[in-house]
Amino acid sequence: MILPFILATAAAAATDESLELARQALADGLPQVAVYTLETQSLPSEAHHILLGRALVLSGRPADATKVLEPLAAKSPEAAFWLGQALAAENRPEEALPHYIAASAPESPVRNEATLGAALLRARLGRPAEALETLAQVESWPTGALRNRALVERATLELAGSDTTGALRSLDAMQNPSDAEAMRRQFVRAQAMAASGDAAAAAALFAEVRPLNAGMAVDSIIGRADALRASGELSAAEVLLEDFIATHENLPGLGRVFEALDRVYSAVPNASTAELRRWTDAPEPSQRKSYALFYRAKREAAQNRGELARRLLGILIRTAPDHPLAPIASVELASARIQAGEFAEALEVLPPPGTEATADFLRGIALAGLDRAAEAIVAFRAASSDPEISEPALYNAALCAVRSGQPDHPVIAELRTRFPESPRLARLRFHEALDVARSNPRQAAMRLEALIEQAGPREASVAALALAELRFLDGNFQAARESLRQVATDVSPDRQAALNVFLADTGDPAATDAAIAAAQQFVKDFPDSPAEPDVRMKWGELLFRKGDFAAARLQFESLARRTAGTPLEETALFLAGQSASKLLSADALDDALLLFEEVAALNGSLAQRARLEQAILQSARGRTAEAVVILDRVVSAADSPEIRFAALIEKGKTLYLSGTPQGLEDAIAAWRMIATDPEASPDWRNQAWSRIGTAHEKLGRTDAALAAFYEVIRPGRDENPGLLWFYKAGFDAGRLLESAQRWEEAVRVYEMIAAVEGPRAAEARARINKIRLENFLWDGD
Prior knowledge:
By secondary structure, this protein is mainly α. Helix 2 (about 30-40) packs antiparallel against helix 3 and helix 16 (about 275-280) packs across helix 17. The model is unreliable at about 1-15, about 470-475 and about 480-490 (pLDDT under 50).
């Protein structure tokens, strides 16, 4: 029975490790990593499922969280709370509320969190009085962030209910607020001043707000601008909004800032469109440019420059068809074209039939203008589904019927039935009379006479005029070189000359030719010197560094043949092989393989390294299978962990370069053997995890890639991590998160990088500052 006990103990240890890693990832602000860690482990415990549900909610997957948490909600208040969070995020507030209520029971470990959630949900459901009642005892909560947040939320609710005094009292009840909490309080206090009509105080308070996020930034700038506008400071409001827009070209909520700017422009006689022009003329696309096109068109139209307005709207529709304002721009452009009599052009920009009632109404007008009455009637009847325009839509449909000679069309009866008191009925009778006049002047005259008696003054006058016409017509080695110079005073001439060769190599590429000339002169002057092999080796090294691989190979191979049977032979052969491999010609590569084979046959300290080089060459030639066979032999025969790990890295690289999904999976498996090996040093392990992350990314598995990168950068992982792979993994993870616009998580990754001082820590801090500034993320919130 010992074996089952050992297996059970191992499984429990794996469970605890996975749960701890997931908790750490959540604490580090990386819920996607926590989700991946938990989803890839078979952990049946309740704690696992609750933690997974929580991570799923925080990573933006509420539907998946709901499935995980529903079976546990009845027996765990924590599960019930997170289920409520998931359902609320799914926009299922009525279903979420009972779970918040259950989680707010007196003995619940998340009682106050659930109480706040229930209050916010009740407010969302349009039940503000119940929401305020739910938060009535907030002052009795323990002092801390949750209490302060609840007080801010209560103040917001009170403010929405026009209870400015209550809102200010709730804000004053906050205790020891953090900087972020104090800023939320300042923001709501500014809103309260605005609501109470003290525009000057509101503007001053809004000016001191440091936004915690993009939404708050937008609300603050709009609140301040509105307060300035209410104080009559229109120029200050205009400059404030224009400066904000100028520095935030793609900020969420930018459209609301443009709306506020438009309100200011509307209050300024002959407002300048200079800033709008500058933004619309920007060469790169942006949300700012698109919004500017729309609002500039609106300004131009108001200043009677209709043709320019239509051109601007057309540019918006063509360059940003998915922009929130594109549908409205389409309708505006169509309306402008209709007013200009461009009916066919109006039809070209309208959205498909049935998309929006106003568009259908305009379609009807354009079709009618093209004398396509039957299609116009269909469009007007579709537009009549909107109660706000149903009467004029049906009237126009009926009018089209009358003008096309269909006096008995059902739409006429529909208009009369739905709107029997409509004043448009008299106008319709007038047009019916005109239609009759085409064929029966006498009957038309009779209808016009009756209309004159029954219609209002305007219609009667038009009818009378028509009757009159009818009647008328009818018609970075300094220390090493210093040490060599110190021992170079009492030696033989050949030794002195040899030392001069090494001293000539300063490491500066510009001194390489002088060092090569010194080596060449030494071999010529002292061919039998004991130091000749060492100098020749140095000569080859210099040639290799210079890039003269053919000459380097000649020196190394010549040295190997002259020192056969000595320890120097193996090294020289190995370096000759490396030089040959750099030549890249097919013959040179074949020679390199043979030279490495000679090294391997010597069975010395470089034998396995030679096999590795052979594998790398085979891989470079596209012979993946041959390379993998060689690497597997090295792995199984490796006499040191370092060689084994090097072979596994090369095996993974070879498989990765195959580019196939299976090749990538096999590469991950090879690298994982290093990542999970307790003998692996931090450098080897971090290289493996970093490469694993890259492979997962190539396979489209972003969460798996982030989890692998996190294994390299997570706090406490290594006391002194190798910086090469640490930085690679960290910046790759940050890049992935930025691409997904997960700004807060990207900041957390860059903070982990910046916490380890090194050559790229400043770069990480710069990324943090840039993201925070562009997205209004509060430091330490």
